[in-house]
Amino acid sequence: MRGDFGGRLDAIDQRITGMTNTFTAFERKLSEARQEVADNTARIDQAETRIATTETAQEETATALKTAMKRIAQLVTKTEDLENRARRKNLRIFGIREVTEGSRPLLEFVTEMIPTWLGLPPQKTFTLERVHRTLATGKPGQNRAVLVCFLKFQDKEFVYREARKQQITHDGQKITFVQDFSAETVRVRKGFQQIIQKFIAINAFHGFKYNPCQLRILHNSKIHLFSTPREAEKFYGHLSLTAEDPGEE
């Protein structure tokens, strides 16, 4: 009987030993898992720190970029203004054939012809500083524009106003006088061409404002300025609705 009891004790002891080994292995695995969690937590903390640092840097970069873009826009506007101011005494003349002036200097020819084209008295003269054709290469059958720089701004304005009142021709060619603007100003103005025709039809077009270039519309004795064709179209649509329903305003 003692042998039976001893055998049962040995079996129990073995089971306890096995359970102890199992618990030891479990504790080791648990310890490893805890260490892995701790390592991952540290890595997550590091990642969050790096992300926060990156986000801060991005915010600072975005702020700096916004400031730079604003400054660039200001410089572009200022440059456009300076360029247009430098051109304020200039006019471009279209329609003069390339060889019309003959052997005479172009400045002499244009100085002589402006009063004639405008139907002014012979004693009415204008002093021109420079006259030359634009630098673009001439194309077959197409005449380059003639750039005219007046000594006095008032003379340039007078000639431009008088030229707009008349149909000028020379040797059967239509002669047109236009203002000399920067390429960007010309681009902006062209964008308004379609809506301008609508405002002209209702006698509301009032030219353009300079620096920045904006469309001027006269309505109810008040000048309205528009920076984009879309803004002008929206305003015109409002006028059309008002005209259809006079009681709206």
TrEMBL record:
<keyword id="KW-0175">Coiled coil</keyword>
<protein>
    <recommendedName>
        <fullName>LINE-1 type transposase domain-containing protein 1</fullName>
    </recommendedName>
</protein>
<feature type="coiled-coil region">
    <location>
        <begin position="30"/>
        <end position="92"/>
    </location>
</feature>
<dbReference type="InterPro" id="IPR004244">
    <property type="entry name" value="Transposase_22"/>
</dbReference>
